[in-house]
Specification:
This protein is an alpha+beta fold. It has three domains: 160 residues, no CATH class; 205 residues, no CATH class; 289 residues, Rossmann fold (3-Layer(aba) Sandwich). The chain has 19 helices and 24 strands. Strand 22 and strand 23 form a beta hairpin. Helix 2 packs antiparallel against helix 12 and helix 16 crosses helix 17. The radius of gyration is 41 Å and the shape is elongated. The relative contact order is 0.10. Bound molecules: adenosine-5'-triphosphate and magnesium ion (MG). The site of adenosine-5'-triphosphate has 16 residues, from helix 13, strand 14 and helix 14.
């Protein structure tokens, strides 16, 4: 049945693409926003993480994060150097002087002053020049984004000059630095020169960068430095985290992104979840058909979960692909978004979330499918519903009228009228009510009916009198409230649900008024449904169905979709579906009412010809008096009871086995007027 689930899903292109789009959209939004959030937050620690050749950052105890620094003294540096376990310790300056380009354009820059001798903290990725060139007087290295700001549209060349607080400096290198949170350009210089660029401050050392001796546990060394010097020491990783936490606590970033991500989540959940839910609800009738032909709730649940996982995976993959492409393209094209990437954590989290969303949506819709009364497949179109609503009013009126009357005893049809005396359906005093309290309506008011094997029996009566309800009860699709019901000698209304399904699977064939073919399956696949439900392999089931369609004159149309078939052809396919598993009872609800007279006649001919067999009973509900001649018996129903039956000779069959309706005789009328 898995292929049926997939076809149902993909059959309606517009809905399917809508679903995929909704999930892809939600995935994209979630991954995009969470990755940008992580990227922005990560930038606050860019200057720390870019210094890869150090283990520990030592700073004033009041320095909380990398961008607001209380200066250290030269003495502090020497004390750190004296701590056991320190291999080397060097100074680092970080300041924010103002830089001016020759054309007057100016901007605050992040200036990193590196230890003169070792250049610890120099950029790792040089695009032009070399860090050693910093030894030249007034030399600086600038990051690519800064260069592009000061010299927009100009080729990357060295030797250009800038003014840093009125000091003229020369660009000797171009580096790739991680983008800082403030989006300022990043400039590197020697410590001794950097401090001359920033003016009046006396103590200019921002940090002491420490390399630990091999084999030393960094956390221990941090504690030792703190104990010895009274300064604060943190590993590179801890200091980066400390800075990130500071920004998260003290800026609106988390709130801002929190809102966007929450909106993405809500939009994603609502759009994806609801679209999938609606998709299932709109397919309820199809699920009803599957239930009617004997597909178990477990199987249906599996089908829905399969559909959910499929759209979830496809939608998520597309969304993730788009998000990765987004970062790839914008990272290349835009300076502002450089360094932003789709984080695997974000993709994994989003994937899990999408899975959760579709599974919750499918669980909700599964509930609808599980509690679905398969009897709903007998319900007609809008027209039919409107008709039923009027009928319902009529039945209230009749019921009120009838309240003072005693219930009429109904007449069974078994008395000597069967071909071989065997009874397929036996009802006595069958009662069914709908609703509760005030709205309670007794629809079957003690039905007595026998449907013999080897015949076609018609059930006729005014609209709303309970024919469909009786049919649903007789086929175990609807629970009854009271009365005796034996179908092929099984007490169907007393069997537990699962056994009822198995019984239906083996013994019942359905023809519905609306044909109820699954639109995404071909004619042959539709016919094969009862076999598939019974576990026959798809190929064998479809082959058998094709042979049957062939014998019904539909061989050439076996691969057609229902939408490509005429009404008569669809009803023939539905007939084949009812016959394919050779059931012993076939029930049809108004099989000709959607057809014109001639087509309806031909369908009935076919039904009489192929369905009526000695070991099989056919029960047909109809309004159509033109097909009465095909019946061996007619049960008249009114107001929830069988009030009259006619026994007929049944159709005379010609040499080809085709019944000749014109030749039918009215054999016997067990007359008893409906309102006697
Ligand atoms: N699930 C339900 N809940 C409440 N009332 C229902 C339900 N199903 C049927 N009824 C009512 O039971 C009555 C009989 O309905 P049913 O569909 O069996 O009539 P019918 O004889 O098949 O009519 P029609 O010829 O129009 O198809 C109607 O009044 C209908 O409104
Ligand atoms: Mg009906």
């Amino acid at each position: 049945m898995n292929f049926v689930a997939i076809r149902m899903l993909t059959g309606d292109r517009a809905k399917y693409l809508g679903l995929i789009f909704a999930i892809a959209f939600a995935s994209f939004l979630l991954e995009n926003q969470s990755s940008i959030f992580a990227g922005v937050v990560g930038r606050t620690a860019s200057q720390i993480l870019d210094v890869t050749d150090t283990d520990i950052w030592v700073m004033d105890p009041n320095t909380q994060y990398v961008d607001e620094i209380r200066a250290l003294t030269e003495n502090d540096l020497y004390r750190v150097r004296g701590v056991p376990g320190v291999q080397w310790a060097v100074r680092l300056f970080k300041g924010l002087p103002r830089a001016k380009a020759p054309d007057g354009k100016f901007r605050v820059v992040i200036l990193m002053g590196l230890d003169d001798a070792t250049l610890v903290g120099a950029p790792g990725r040089m695009l032009l020049g070399s860090t050693a060139d910093l030894s030249q007087p007034d030399a600086i290295i600038i990051d690519r984004a800064g260069y592009m700001f000061f010299f927009p549209g100009q080729p990357f060349t060295l030797g250009r000059t800038l003014e840093l607080n009125d000091h003229r400096v020369k660009i000797v290198g171009l580096a790739e630095a991680s983008p800082p949170f403030q989006t300022f350009p990043v400039v590197f210089a020697r410590y001794s020169q950097a401090i001359t660029y920033v003016g009046q401050e006396r103590n200019l050392m921002s940090f002491v960068l420490v390399k630990a001796q091999p084999g030393i546990v960094l956390k221990d060394l941090c504690r030792r430095i703190e104990a010895t010097t009274g300064l604060h020491a943190a590993t590179t990783y801890d200091f980066a985290r400390q800075t990130i936490v500071y920004y998260l606590r003290n800026t609106g970033i988390p709130v801002n992104f929190g809102i966007t991500i929450t909106i993405a989540l809500i939009v994603g959940t609502v759009v994806a979840g609801q679209t999938f839910y609606i998709f299932t609800i709109e397919s309820l009738k199809q699920f009803g058909v599957l239930k009617a032909v004997g597909v178990t709730n477990r199987r249906l649940t599996g089908m829905i979960l399969l559909q959910a996982c499929l759209v979830g995976i496809i939608g998520f993959s597309i969304g993730t692909g788009l998000c990765a492409a987004f970062f790839l393209v914008t990272g290349k094209l835009l300076l502002q978004t450089r360094g932003f990437i789709l984080l695997w954590q974000s993709a994994v989290g989003t994937g899990a979330l999408i899975l959760l969303i579709v599974i919750v949506a499918s669980l909700l819709s599964i509930r609808r499918v599980v509690v679905l009364e398969p009897a709903m497949v007998f319900r007609g179109t809008q027209n039919g519903l409107a008709r039923r609503r009027f009928a319902f009013l009529g039945s209230i009126f009749r019921r009120n009228r009838g309240r003072s009357r005693p219930l009429r005893p109904a007449i069974g049809m078994s008395n000597g009228s069967t071909t071989n005396g065997a009874i397929a359906v036996h009802c006595r005093g069958l009662r069914k009510e709908f609703g509760e309290g005030q709205a309670k309506a007794l629809v079957l008011r003690g039905v007595d009916l026998d449907v013999p094997l080897g015949q076609m029996t018609l059930l006729v009566g005014p609209s709303g009198c309970g024919k469909t309800t009786l049919l649903s009860a007789v086929t175990g699709l609807l629970d009854t409230n009271d009365g005796e019901l034996a179908v092929l000698d099984e007490p169907l209304n007393q069997l537990p649900g699962h056994q009822r399904i198995l019984f239906r699977r083996r013994n019942l064939g359905f023809v519905f008024q609306e044909y109820n073919l699954l639109p995404a399956l071909t004619a042959a696949e539709n016919v094969a449904l009862p076999l598939l439900a019974a576990g026959v392999a798809r190929r064998r089931a479809v082959e058998r169905s094709k042979r049957l369609l062939d014998s019904l004159g539909m061989g050439a149309r076996a691969e057609a979709l229902p939408a490509q078939l005429s009404g008569g052809e669809q009803q023939r396919v539905a007939l084949a579906r009812a016959l394919v598993h050779e059931p012993r009872l076939i029930v049809c609800d108004e099989p000709t009412s959607a057809l014109d007279a001639e087509t309806g006649h031909r369908v009935m001919e076919l039904l009489a010809q192929v369905a009526v067999r000695p070991e099989r009973a056919v029960l047909v509900v109809t309004h159509d008096s033109r097909i009465f001649d095909f019946a061996s018996a007619i049960a008249h129903m009114n107001d929830g009871q069988i009030v009259r039956t006619e026994t007929r000779a049944g159709p005379r069959v010609n040499g080809d086995g085709v019944p000749e309706p014109g030749s039918l005789l009215l054999a016997q009328v067990s007359a008893r007027p409906a309102h006697a």
